[in-house]
Design a protein that fits this description.
The protein is α/β, with parallel strands linked by helices. The protein folds into two domains: 130 residues, Rossmann fold; 132 residues, NAD(P)-binding Rossmann-like Domain (Rossmann fold, 3-Layer(aba) Sandwich), CATH 3.40.50. The protein is built from eight helices and twelve strands. The strands form two sheets. A six-stranded mixed beta sheet has the order 2-1-3-5-6-4. Helix 1 links the parallel strand 1 and strand 2. Helix 4 crosses helix 5 and helix 4 packs across helix 7.
């Protein structure tokens, strides 16, 4: 039997074990998937040191270790290298292979939901590992401009500079209130607002903005927090499922995900929230 995990801080309520319970049962794969809370970098190091002893075949990583895990990888695939974060590890011959499936999940999510970014101005909340994957996906969208609102301006500026390297003209900026009256604005929440107790003052800066869409990468709905905005709110359940299916294909060197029905998975997870 193969063993897989999701690791991160406060992953007790993660839907990942339920997702893979459905997948493994449906595909008749002899494998199990559970979670492990990782409190800090020392815990992360201990977990990785004991992977072989615990017979782990692969694992997913969530906040806040998507960047840190790269230092343990023997191989980092090109997308994860460009994003500078990984959320999926495959173990081959005791070596760690790092991948990023967040950008795949987000790209398929917006396609599935029919989100049109053409000539939109996008505000991204947050500048962590998840934000980097979202920006990487947005490189392929014909956006007008990108604006990062983060408590950490240093990491935000790094993301902005990296994003702008892909264009002849500057498209990414730190958030500035001058854009609040623009049309066709889209908000993407890449922070844990709504999932953990956190200060909501960051929302005060944008509360007067009318958004076309609010896309929340959290699959535990934060809709009540964003009720103050007049916009179509979509949580990240679709993105979560698609990134999980991408992890499945990586672990099994196959397109096993094509044998699964997305709507059946979504319905199953909805009944288990």
């Amino acid at each position: 039997m193969s063993h897989y995990k999701v690791i991160g801080q406060s992953v007790d309520n993660s839907l990942s074990p339920k997702l893979f319970e459905f997948i493994f049962k449906y595909l008749k794969i002899d494998a199990e998937y559970d979670y492990q809370n990782i409190a800090d970098l020392n815990n992360l190091s201990h977990f990785i040191d004991n992977l072989i002893l615990n017979n782990i075949s692969g694992f997913n990583i969530t906040m806040p270790f998507k960047k840190d895990v790269l230092s343990y990888a023997h191989y980092v695939e090109e997308d994860a290298k460009n994003i500078a974060a990984a959320n999926c590890i495959k173990i081959i011959d005791n070596q760690l292979y790092a991948y990023n499936t967040d950008h795949v999940g987000f790209s398929k999510f917006i396609l599935h939901q029919g989100i049109d970014f053409n000539n939109s101005s996008v505000i991204v909340l947050g500048s962590g590992g998840s934000s980097q994957a979202i920006l990487y996906s947005l490189l392929n969208q014909n956006i007008r401009s990108l604006h990062i609102l983060s408590r950490n301006n240093i990491s935000a500026k790094i993301l902005i500079n990296k994003f702008n390297l892909s264009f002849d003209v500057k498209k990414a900026f730190l958030f500035n209130e001058e854009i609040i009256h623009r049309e066709n604005l889209i908000l993407i929440n890449c922070t844990p607002i709504g999932n953990i107790k956190t200060d909501l003052d960051i929302l005060d800066v944008i509360k007067k903005i009318h958004f076309k869409y609010i896309l929340d990468i959290n699959y535990r709905s934060s809709k009540t927090i964003f009720n103050q905005f007049d916009a179509r709110y979509i949580n990240g359940l679709d993105m979560f499922i698609y990134q999980g299916l991408s992890s499945l294909d990586i672990w099994y060197d196959n397109t096993l995900s094509s044998k699964l029905n997305f709507n059946e998975i979504k319905q199953f997870l909805g009944s288990n929230e």
